[in-house]
Amino acid sequence: PQSKPASPETSRYTTHEVIIFHFSRSQISVRQEEPPFLEPLSWRFPEEPTKDEPHFPPNFELRTTVAPDSIKVICGDNSIRVEAKRDLLGIGVLVQTADAQILIFESELHGCGSQLLMSEEAFIYVFTLLYTPSPLGGSPIVRTIDFSVSIECHYRRKNDVSSDVLKPTWAPFSETNASEESLYFSLRLMTDDWQFPRSSTQFFLGDMIKFEASVEQFHHVPLRVTVDSCVATVVPNVDTVPRYAFLGNNGCMFDGQLTGSSSRFLPQSHKDKLQFELEAFRFQHGNSDVIYITCSLKATEAAANVNATNKACSFSSGWREASGIHHACSCCDTDCRAGTKSSLTVKGKQQHTLS
């Protein structure tokens, strides 16, 4: 049967719908049977970029590390002074104000955590300067590092001294922060009451010649002074004859034992001072009434024990030690250095002329 023609709008819609349907199926069929890409793709991922090696100029030199000259040390009589630049590391980064309000440090030699070391030649006071940086601003970073600097003050231990007090000479070490100074020994003639130095060196036979040996403490730990030996001669040379060694063997007063005199050490009430008295005498065949007395003084740490090599012994019906440690004198009739280890001591010589 003949259908009724559709309206233009309906016909247009229906035709359009059919075309779309068949076109889609046709295209799907064509794509499945005849792929449009028959040849392989020529595109590839690009190669990774390469970097040229750095080329230094002919005269280029890497910077080498140089020790900064940023700390100055002054070792005084009884204290140490350390002056530190704010650029402690020498890299142009200053120590923050929050890290160090002051960069000048002063301390007594036996304070601020110092250590005392001893060698045959010197007392050495060792300090450690520590620096710990704080974070920059509110960040967790720093641009300097924790570090420590070892600082040393050296003081000579051995000197030959005359009747005058030896003045210290300062000579800083070139490679370490250190300075040197001498100990002050003294051997003086004293008045009969031991109150003042004796101005006259003239004595009569039968007089008691009174001596006071001492060592100044200053910056050092407490020290004990002893008299190792004393020799009397008619000229200022201890190796001549006639000579009389009335004190020796590391602190044994032989005169009382040899001659029956009253020569003796007095009880030692202060460790840095030692008093002794010698009965006046003259050489039998001497042509001069002048006598030279040369004594060797020694200082050790006051805390060290009185022993065979550090003592002050007198003889009066037996050996007696000035501080009461009498067994230390048991070697006075033999050799007090036999079988003992050499102790670390400070020595000096003093000479007096008597007439």
Automatic annotation (TrEMBL):
Cross-referenced SMART domains: ZP
Gene Ontology process terms (BP): binding of sperm to zona pellucida; egg coat formation; positive regulation of acrosome reaction
InterPro entries per UniProt: ZP-C, ZP-C_dom, ZP-N, ZP_chr, ZP_dom
Cited function: Component of the zona pellucida, an extracellular matrix surrounding oocytes which mediates sperm binding, induction of the acrosome reaction and prevents post-fertilization polyspermy. The zona pellucida is composed of 3 to 4 glycoproteins, ZP1, ZP2, ZP3, and ZP4. ZP3 is essential for sperm binding and zona matrix formation.
Keyword Disulfide bond: yes
Residue ranges occupied by any ZP domain in the UniProt entry: 65-320
The UniProt record lists the keyword Disulfide bond: yes
Post-translational modification as stated in the protein's UniProt record: Proteolytically cleaved before the transmembrane segment to yield the secreted ectodomain incorporated in the zona pellucida.
Name under which the protein is recorded: Zona pellucida sperm-binding protein 3
Single GO term (MF): structural constituent of egg coat
Gene that specifies this protein: LOC100699670
Entry's transmembrane regions: none
Keyword line: Cell membrane, Cleavage on pair of basic residues, Disulfide bond, Extracellular matrix, Glycoprotein, Membrane, Secreted, Signal, Transmembrane, Transmembrane helix
Gene Ontology CC, one term: plasma membrane
Family under the similarity heading: Belongs to the ZP domain family. ZPC subfamily.
A Pfam family it matches: Zona_pellucida
Entry domain remark: The ZP domain is involved in the polymerization of the ZP proteins to form the zona pellucida.
Topology of the protein relative to the lipid bilayer: Single-pass type I membrane protein
Species per Swiss-Prot/TrEMBL record: Oreochromis niloticus
